[in-house]
Design brief:
Layout lengths: L26 H14 L1 H8 L6 E7 L16 E6 L5 E7 L7 H14 L6 E4 L11 H5 L7 E4 L1 H9 L10 H12 E3 L1 H17 L9 H7 L2 H7 L2 E3 L2 H15 L15 H11 L15 E9 L2 E8 L4 H13 L7 H23 L13 H15 L20 H7 L12 H7 L24 H4 L152 H13 L10 H12 L3 H4 L11
Helix pairs in contact: 2-13, 5-11, 6-10, 7-8
């Protein structure tokens, strides 16, 4: 840092100006260079994709990715269908105009791939539909006619989702418990694996400081998570007859009182759930495991609490393809891409996805520091390394077989719709023009794929033992619909203390002003004056001097039943009394010079509104709260809202609670 201090005799230092910042390439330039690199590796990518095999296959389709296709091919694709294996790799992925007959060429290509490579045909194929029919083979089974021994199985997650269509709403309080019970009725956990996991969890909790005596089986089971169950425990299906019995029992019990939440709303639509169960009952046999097909592969061991637990990977179902479809939309940047860019990004995404799944499936770790997806580069490095040192640098690498010629992605769609295939030759004018046609504005969409709706209730006690009693949600009885609701405490009105006035001779003379805007009430002659209820007659001494009430005295609440009385300016009887003006809000005064009055019960304080009308403010509060409820979208009041309305109603004056008679108007 340059500086100059004249006092110390230091001179200012000069520095060279920094260079101008280099202009960074645009995102379009980077994506274009990336696409051209993919085009030069296209043959290696296609060969790697068509060199993937498996013994347990899964097939699933999605629609979301087709929305990103733009250009002349926009709107022609209806589905993207993918086929995966037990390791999560994708054998083929195509865009089609039809999910049915449009897959004939894809299935024929898969059968031919296995035949040319001499690989044994797969044994099981998991699908989400067309698993069986009442008589004969399904059309899907006929498409895979080259594999006569393959067995079609229905994905269990899709079977559960079909039954879940009978619920009133997936936001129901019992919906997570219902889904967890469905899983428990279909699967049973391996007893040895579960016992070992419980032992490891108990040891882990003991090392964390929990006393051994307090660790009951219930506490240990509550500490086991769903992820730990899936990682360390194997499970199998219960058999067709047992599954039908358990599912029927579950639906029957949750169709009754046990299937109602705290508000009394049922979990099922009764007619719909019975209709769905009658239809899906014949598919229970399609979700059963095959006895001779191993579905679990050990991937390693994990130490938990000093106990060695095995970790497993399951090959059952099509959840791996659901996960692939979830990531598929991210392979293609932006919300649209022309046919060439779509195809390039799709092929590169498939290639990298399969490489990652293959690396995760290896039993032995790869200690190499070489990190690349290029098969040509790895092959060249291995060749040169072997020539120098006699061993390959990456022993687990094997070059892919030759490209089989199967159409992948957009190429399959163009052939199906009888359109010319895109020119993918690097350097051609048409290719360069399409590569630079890029739009990467992102569009936020929800992920499509496997969604875990078992909830936090899906612990061991609901996932393991379906024959146990179903958990009951405590709810109020029909006689008391607000038994579970909190009670609103209304404050008790304060008790008014009795004020003893001093004797009249000691009171200072104070002239009270006349109440403004209050009409005078002319009383009749004294013999006709009405007697106030519950008050004895007051005898006034004949020679009583004029009494002036001090305004500083505290106000005493007057019962609402007593009318405000104003004495006439000239009272004929007794003649000695002077004119006394009493404000309408002054309380009745009891002094030692008056006869004792009968005690009256204390009345709650009445809070006047801005218009001076007692009790109107409380009515306004209730009215304002009811008007605010009109803005909410729900048609059902919450327990807190019900208690608030009841509390505001109880605070009203007795007069405001009375029913308004027809033809009358409320007092102003």
């Amino acid at each position: 840092m340059g500086f100059r201090n004249n006092n110390l005799g230091l001179q200012q230092m000069s520095f060279q100006r920094p260079p101008d910042p280099v202009e960074l390439p645009s995102y379009k330039w980077l994506l274009t260079v990336y696409s051209k690199d993919i085009l030069h590796r296209l043959d290696d990518i296609k060969a790697a994709i068509t060199s993937t095999y498996g013994s347990i296959l899964k097939m699933d389709s999605t629609k979301k990715i087709t929305k990103k296709l733009s250009g002349p091919a926009k709107g022609t694709a209806q589905w993207m269908t993918s086929v995966g294996n037990e390791f999560g790799q994708v054998l083929i992925s195509v865009l089609t105009t039809d999910e049915g007959n449009g897959l004939d060429a894809m299935t024929a290509g898969l059968v031919e791939r296995y035949r040319r490579a001499g690989v044994s045909p797969p044994t099981v194929l998991y699908v989400d539909c067309h698993c069986c029919k009442e008589a004969g083979d399904t059309k899907l089974k006929q498409r895979f006619g080259g594999w006569p021994g393959i067995i079609i199985r229905l994905d269990i997650w899709h079977f559960m989702r079909r039954l879940a269509g009978g619920v009133t709403t997936d936001a129901h309080q019992l919906y997570p418990i219902f889904m967890a019970r469905l899983s428990a009725c279909i699967f049973e956990w391996d007893a040895e694996d579960l016992a070992l996991l419980r032992r490891a969890k108990r040891e882990q909790l003991t090392k964390e400081g929990l006393p051994t005596a307090s660790l009951t089986d219930v506490i240990v089971d509550n500490c086991i998570t769903k992820a730990e169950l899936a990682l360390h425990c194997r499970r199998r299906t219960r058999g067709t007859d047992n599954t039908i019995r358990l599912l029927g029992k579950l639906i029957e019990e949750l169709s009754g009182p046990k299937g109602r939440d705290a508000m009394g709303v049922g979990l099922f639509e009764p007619v719909r759930i019975q209709h769905l169960w009658n239809i899906q009952k014949r598919h229970v046999g399609c979700i059963q495991d095959l006895p001779d097909v191993p579905l679990y592969t050990q991937t390693g061991t994990l130490n938990k609490g000093g106990v060695a637990l095995k970790t497993y990977r399951c090959a059952r179902g099509s959840t791996s393809l659901e996960s692939f479809h979830c990531h598929l939309a991210r392979f293609i940047p932006g919300n649209s891409a022309n046919s060439l860019n779509f195809q390039i990004y799709l092929l590169e995404g498939l290639f990298r996805w399969n490489k990652d799944r293959a690396a995760a499936a290896l039993a032995v770790g790869d200690d190499s520091r070489l990190r690349t997806y290029s098969g040509e580069l790895v092959y060249a490095v291995n060749t040169n390394y072997t020539a120098l040192f006699g061993v390959p640098l990456i022993p687990g690498f094997s070059p892919p077989a030759a490209y089989t010629g199967e159409l992948i992605g957009v190429q399959y769609l163009l052939r199906q719709s009888r359109q010319p295939l895109e020119d993918m030759t690097p350097g051609s004018p048409r290719t360069s023009e399409l590569l630079e046609d890029i739009s990467v504005e992102q569009e936020v969409e929800e992920d499509e794929g496997f969604i875990d709706t078992l909830g936090e209730e899906a612990i061991v006690d609901v996932l393991v033992a379906p024959d146990a009693e179903l958990p009951v949600i405590h709810r109020p009885t029909p006689q008391d619909p607000r038994a579970q609701l909190p009670t609103v405490q209304v404050p008790t009105p304060p008790q008014l203390s009795t004020v003893q006035l001093p004797t009249p001779p000691q009171l200072p003379t104070v002239q009270l002003p006349t109440p403004p805007q209050l009409p005078a009430v002319q009383l009749p002659t004294p013999p006709q004056l009405p007697t106030p209820p519950q008050l004895p007659a007051v005898q006034v001494p004949p020679q009583l001097p004029a009494v002036q009430v001090s305004p500083q005295l505290p106000a005493v609440q007057v019962p609402p039943q007593l009318p405000t009385v104003q004495l006439p300016p000239q009272l004929p009887t007794p003649p000695q009394l002077s004119t006394v003006q009493v404000p309408p809000q002054l309380p009745a005064v009891q002094g030692p010079f008056l006869l004792p009055a009968a005690p009256t019960p204390p009345a709650p304080p009445v809070r006047a509104s801005g218009h001076g009308i007692p009790g109107l403010a409380r009515a306004d509060e209730l009215a304002e709260y009811l008007v605010e409820l009109r803005s909410q979208t729900s048609l059902v009041l919450s327990p807190q809202q019900e208690d608030t309305i009841v509390g505001l109603w109880q605070n009203l004056d007795p007069y405001d609670k009375e029913k308004l008679k027809s033809g009358s108007t409320p007092a102003q």
